[in-house]
Structures are given as C-alpha cells and as structure tokens.
Amino acid sequence: MLCKSFDHIGITSMAEHGINNLQGSYLVTLIGLLFYIQGIQTLKILEFEVPATVNISQKLVELRCTFDMEGRNLFAVKWYKDDAEFYRYMPKMDPKKQHFNTTGISLDMALSDDNSVYLNRLQYSTSGQYRCEISTDGPDYHSKVLTKKLSVMALPPIGSPRIVVNKHVIAAGDNLEANCTIVSNPAATLIWYINGEKAESYLLNREERQLPDRERRQFRSLALKFNVAKSHFYDPAHFDKINITCQATIPNLDEVLTNAEMVNNLHKSPGYVAAQGSHYSGAMSTAFSGFWVRVLLMSTWSIVVISPMSFY
Description:
By secondary structure, the chain is α+β, with helices and mostly antiparallel strands. The protein has helices at residues 2-41, 270-309; strands at residues 44-49, 53-55, 60-68, 74-81, 84-89, 97-99, 116-120, 128-136, 143-153, 162-165, 169-170, 175-184, 189-194, 197-198, 204-210, 218-227, 241-249, 257-265. It is elongated.
C-alpha cells in the first residue's frame, strides 16, 4: 500500500514536471514567434521599381528598391536575375558593393548603391525575373523579398504601325488598297479591320523578313485590297466614310498598337459636291440667261408691234 502511494506521488510529480516543461516549451516558441513577427513587421520595402519593358537601344536602366529598417541595422541588399545573384551591397564590408558575373548583366557600379542598380549595355538576354532581397543584421537576420519581370525589346518607332493607302477619296466599285508595316523584336502580329470588322484572309497579303541590324528587328507587312461596295459607306459610326484600322500586338508588350485611316465617299466629298454645285450653277445661269434673252426679244417684238399703233 505504501509502495503504491509512493508510485502515485512519483507519477504525479513526473506528470506535473512534464506539463511545466511543455508549457515552458510553448512559451519559448511563442516568444520566438512574436520576435519573428515583430522582425517582419519592422522591415518594409517602400518602393520596388523594375520596368516591364525596356528598349534595347536604351543606354541606362535603373532598378530601384528602397526600404525602411524601422530602427534595425541593414545586413545586406541583394539583387538576383533568374535566381542568380548579380549585385550585393553590405554596409559593413569593404568594399560595400560587389558584382557577380551573370549572363545578360552589365552594371554601372559607380551609380549603383544600396537603393538602386543601373543596367547598361542591354542585350536580349538581360530579360528575366529580377528579385530584390533586403535583410536585417543579427541576431535574427530577417529578410524581405520582391520580384518583377523585365523584358528587353526592340520597340517599334513612334506612330507604328504605319499605314499607306492608294486613295483617300473613293467611289463604290473602286479598289481600295492599303499597306500596314512595323519593325520590332519580338515580331509583331498585324490585323486589319474594315469598319470595325476583321478583314477576311483572302483580302490580305503578308510579307515577313528579318532586318540586317544589331537588334535583329523583324519586318512585318500586311497588305489589304478589296472592292468598295456601297454598304461600306453605311457604317453608323462613320457615315459616308470607310474606316480601316491596323492593329499590332507584340509579345511581352501590354499595349496594343493601332493606327487608322478614314477614306471618304467620292460622291459625298466636299470637292465633288463643290464641282457638282458649280456645274448646276453654270447650267442654271445659262438657263436664266436664255430666259432673259427670250424676255428681251418678246419685249422688243411688243415694242415693234405696239409702236405703229400709236400713230393711228
């Protein structure tokens, strides 16, 4: 009986000790978690600027990553392209700035600092996923990471795509011919619209080739030819006009490039109406002229007839 009592006391004591240890473990974990959360909350990236697209002819591109340490010490700022580190800034190191060889990356180290890196001598291989990583000093070494995609392109000239038409004034029954061209890399896809409706493929003729330049730009041309019907002038949005629009889409470029031409109805154009008005005016003038001649003759005849009667 006594042994059982001791056993009971021992088991109870061990259970209480285990509970205390478990509670202590939970407490340590909770405190650590609170410190971790506090570390995350006190490290903020204020600005992260990586352009979505850049022109390969651009001389310098800034990638910006500004932060607020909230009173903590900065350990390092690191930049990565496609998971490969290419730049590191560590305020406690000498030198503070380091550059690591990475495909497609050329840096202006004089301009680069803890907030920005400057890319120069752009290549198509400069395209990729760019990541900025900010980390605090010990003992916790918390970090914050943001990522954005950058695409290097040979952007088309301003005003692209370019449209050339054979006539700006046309009549039903005539052929309307237009050509749409653009140069870029990646290559553009061109689409023609007639009064908002996509042109049928049998009306189109494509030309594609690569230009012999450093940027390896792709030339794209899409010719449009169709016979104008009277119904083409009945578009409610552009009455008595034909609206032809060329649309260009380029991979990795969010913007859709468009250009349009308005072709007037010959029979409704100001020049045609003025010419017709002049014709009608001349005809009426001739008619009126004849009328006055006849009136004059009739008046003269009346005088001739009436005048002798006055002598009687």
